[in-house]
Amino acid sequence: MIYRLSEMPFFPHPQEADPDGLLAVGGDLSSQRLLNAYSCGIFPWYAPDSPILWWSTDPRLVLFPSELHVPRSLRRVINSGRFHITVDTAFPEVLRRCAETPRPDQDGSWIVPEMKDAYTRLHELGYAHSVEAWRDGRLVGGLYGVALGRVFFGESMFYAEPDASKVAFVQLVRSLERREYTMVDCQQTTAHLLRFGAREVRRSEFLQRLALAQQYATEEGNWSELFHEKGNGVFHQL
């Protein structure tokens, strides 16, 4: 059964999703609804010509920061200092570039204009964050997502130079680990993320871990200073 959402920003239990993970349709992308969704392990994903669709996949792909795998070749790239990594310095540009990046087997971007507006609002409220990779003053890669409690919900990434988004991702995960984040929610399984050590867990386990992680206060606001404080920056060699 697929639920049709009302004007109230509430959701049915994620375990009510169909076998593909589709839980509900409709509603809006208000900040309150989005935050409620993430706190319940639900995320929006839909095509430009589709109504808003809400998902809770089973199994769920998760990366536990302590299990991050960094290939030797990527370690060399990170340690070379080829890319300068920043946090929350170019969120709108990262969002735009993610939307414009072609995806295999996708006709157009799922980051439709209303999604851009919604996540920009979450960024302004201090819940959505970006990580940027720069080279010679140019933005050449990055990613964005949402943080609640001690969970980071990854949304999308892009790169204009090889390894740029990978370096941004690795540095983010290492910083999250130092700040005692327990999970990076990858939402859907891809070979790319599996190579970094992500693994599938049952939805029931994911929801249990999510509930525990939300017992901690959310680190709201701009993360630029938070993730560059001494001993916790994103510029550490591996």
From TrEMBL:
Pfam families: Leu_Phe_trans. Transmembrane segments: none annotated. This is Leucyl/phenylalanyl-tRNA--protein transferase. The gene is aat. It catalyses: N-terminal L-arginyl-[protein] + L-leucyl-tRNA(Leu) = N-terminal L-leucyl-L-arginyl-[protein] + tRNA(Leu) + H(+); L-phenylalanyl-tRNA(Phe) + an N-terminal L-alpha-aminoacyl-[protein] = an N-terminal L-phenylalanyl-L-alpha-aminoacyl-[protein] + tRNA(Phe); N-terminal L-lysyl-[protein] + L-leucyl-tRNA(Leu) = N-terminal L-leucyl-L-lysyl-[protein] + tRNA(Leu) + H(+). Functions in the N-end rule pathway of protein degradation where it conjugates Leu, Phe and, less efficiently, Met from aminoacyl-tRNAs to the N-termini of proteins containing an N-terminal arginine or lysine. Belongs to the L/F-transferase family. NCBIfam families: aat. It is an enzyme of class 2 (transferase). Its EC number is 2.3.2.6. One of its GO terms (molecular function) is leucyl-tRNA--protein transferase activity. One of its GO terms (biological process) is protein catabolic process. It is found in: Cytoplasm. HAMAP family: Leu_Phe_trans.
